[in-house]
Structures are given as C-alpha cells and as structure tokens.
C-alpha cells in the first residue's frame, strides 16, 4: 500500500510504461498521488509528446514537498531515468550529458535507447521546453510516423529496445 503516510516518504508515483499498474495497487493511492503515462521503450516512440505532462507532475509534487517515485515495470531505459534526466535538465538548467551523468552516478544500470537520447538532446536544443513548432521537433515527428508506417507495412516484428551506454 502506498498512502501519503508511506514510511519511505514516497507520496507521489509516476508510472511510465505500456501497461498501468494492476487495479489492486491503484486502489491504494490517494487521489492525485499516481499518474500513468503510456510509453513503450522503443526508438519510434515520441517521448517529447508525453514529457511535459510528466515534468509537470514531478514539479508540482516536489513543490508540494512530496517525494516522487518515477518508475517503469521492465526496461532499464524508461521512466525513472529519462524523466528524471529531463526534469534535472529543465529545473537545474543542465545539459543532457550533465544530467545523464548525474543520474548514471546514482543508478549505473541506466541505458536509454538511442531514439530517446536523440529526443532528450532535441529537448536541450529547444531550451528544455517542448516546442511543437520547432523545426527539429516537426522533423522528428515526421520521421517517427514514416518509420512506424514502414514497420507496419513490412509486417516485421518490432525491434527490441537498443540499450546504450553513454559514459
């Protein structure tokens, strides 16, 4: 059970995955204490499209003096690493590599896929704000659509996530 009085001090949870938590766990959260954002761990996903919602949830929780657990169910690439990196970039005006190195120092197993790294570098170029009118963002969205269409037309299985190490 995760109530706001959790002894570990965690009072907000952000789940970023392709599946939400089971209902039996969701029932344990106070209103507003949990947020689910659907995102699969592959390079064709538009991370930036979901980023602002996640950063807002984390920021509001921390401003309210809540501790936040950011997690995914399976892959080392996803939620806790990418969204914490992006939050550090935005809140502390850190470059991608500096934020990545900071998170990697605390959690050495991280390994974001190349597509997500590219998107966080674009986030940096956009001044750590998601600007859907930015030329780089428009190019990214168009490329992701093309890659998805090609994959769907080829009827090949989706590729496994590529794990990278940027250190």
From TrEMBL:
Lineage top rank: taxon: Eukaryota
InterPro entries on file: Dual-sp_phosphatase_cat-dom, Prot-tyrosine_phosphatase-like, TYR_PHOSPHATASE_DUAL_dom
Pfam families according to UniProt: DSPc
Domain Tyrosine-protein phosphatase: 9-126
EC number: 3.1.3.48
Keywords: Hydrolase, Protein phosphatase
TM segment ranges: none
GO MF entries: protein tyrosine phosphatase activity; protein tyrosine/serine/threonine phosphatase activity
Gene3D superfamilies: Protein tyrosine phosphatase superfamily
Family of this protein: Belongs to the protein-tyrosine phosphatase family. Non-receptor class dual specificity subfamily.
Protein name: protein-tyrosine-phosphatase
Species classification: Eukaryota, Metazoa, Spiralia, Lophotrochozoa, Platyhelminthes
